[in-house]
Every structure is written in structure tokens, then in C-alpha cells.
Amino acid sequence: AQKVTQAQTEISVVEKEDVTLDCVYETRDTTYYLFWYKQPPSGELVFLIRRNSFDEQNEISGRYSWNFQKSTSSFNFTITASQVVDSAVYFCALSEAKITGGGNKLTFGTGTQLKVEL
Amino acid sequence: NAGVTQTPKFQVLKTGQSMTLQCAQDMNHEYMSWYRQDPGMGLRLIHYSVGAGITDQGEVPNGYNVSRSTTEDFPLRLLSAAPSQTSVYFCASSPPRPANTEAFFGQGTRLTVV
Question: pLDDT digit string (tens) for A11-62?
């Protein structure tokens, strides 16, 4: 069975601090996909990134960066110079690669509530 | 471009009542799914569909029925609502190819069963 663990329930930082959100996953599949979603206070789910299991390159997008390490089954997310608008719940998710016709059976972590204060 | 549309946004039901949560997408996605979000538990998959006429159970299917008669619509039915079904429900869809691209989520339906 697949499992995603986000051990940090809540993190509070002061604006402009860097913050890393941890994600550890378990799967028996050799091919799988990892995702991060953001859920702001308004409640919608915003896609941030997808990474497949064959691509261990780290990725940077503006103030966001992701560190994927298969050796430790981790897919951590770092926000540099955090801002109040980054306050949200962040979910890490894992998808098996066996679904035909596309699509995702996503297994979500329990989420990390990030609060960025002035 | 509407994307994934869920109705209603809010609903209060009495125990034992039935209702249908509607989900429609206009992106011609083959794959659609329903999740529920509960505090401290993240999102959990209820049912999913890989195309019209094909549905399957997810992690927490009990108490819910689905059908997929068209590519666009994937309604979720609660036959006899229970307080344990109080939750926020999200519908999602994904493009047909390549597999495992991002899931597009609706805005959610907040359901309270009293």
C-alpha cells in the first residue's frame, strides 16, 4: 500500500524566513509520481509541481524549490523568503503509474499548515 | 473555460436523507475522481472513473455511489446520509494522456450532516 507522511502538522515563520516542508513516501512501485498542492484559506487546491520517479533533478520555480531523493523516499518543498501570501495548507501526494488511460489515484499526506506572519 | 465545476458549494442534510453532489468538467478528460477531506486526514479517494461507463472504488467508498454515463459528468450519491459523512468533497479530473499529469480539482462542496 502507498503512504505519504507529512510529519509537520503546523509551521509558523516570520516573513522573509526560509521554510522547508517535509514529505516522506512509501510505495512498492518502481514507477510513480509525486505532487505538491497548495490549499489557501479560500479552500481550492492549487497544483504546484509533479515529479516522476525517474527524474531526481531538483527543481526551482521562483521562490519555490523541490528536493527529490529516492534514497530516502523524500520529496521536500522549500519556500525561500516566505511571504504572508504563502500561508496555506500544503499537501504532498503520491500516484501509482498503473492507471490506463491517464489519470491519478492520489494518496495524500495529511498536510502541513504554514503560517507566515509579519 | 470553466474547468471542473461542483455544485452545490454548501449543503446541510439531515441524517438519513439522500442527495447527489454534482461534478462536471469541460476539458474532455477521461479520468474523474471524488475525494473527501477531513481535518487531520488529508484527502482520501472515494471513487474514480477511467471513462464513461467505468467506475471503481477508492479507499473510502462505503456509503457512496457513483455512475459515469457521459465523459463530462461524474455525480456522487449519498443514499442515506450519516454524520460521519460530514466533510468537504472534491471532484477532480485528469487528461487522458500522458498518464499521471496533474489532477484538476473543483472548488469543493462542504457537506454537513446533522
Answer: 999 999 999 999 999 999 888 889 999 999 999 999 999 888 888 888 888 9
Distance CA B37, CA B102 (A): 18
C-alpha grid cell, residue A105: 489515484
B1: amino acid identity, one letter? N
Distance, in Å, from the CA atom of A54 to the CA atom of A33, rounded to the nearest integer, reads 9
Residue B36 pairs in a beta bridge with B44, B89
Say which DSSP state B85 is in. Answer: G
Cell numbers for A116, please give them: 507566515
**What is the distance between the terminal CA atoms of chain A, rounded to a whole angstrom?**
41
Instruction: Please report the sign of the dihedral spanned by the C-alpha atoms of residue A56, residue A58, residue A61, residue A63.
Output: positive
Q: How far is A86 from chain B (nearest CA, A)?
A: 19
Structural contact between residues A50 and B100, judged by C-beta atoms closer than 8 angstroms: yes
Inter-chain residue contact B100 with A109, CB threshold 8 Å: no
Quickly state the pLDDT bin for B99 (edges 50, 70, 90): low
Contact B100/A at CB under 8 A? yes
CA separation (Å) from A37 to A33, A94, A109, B51? 13, 11, 10, 25
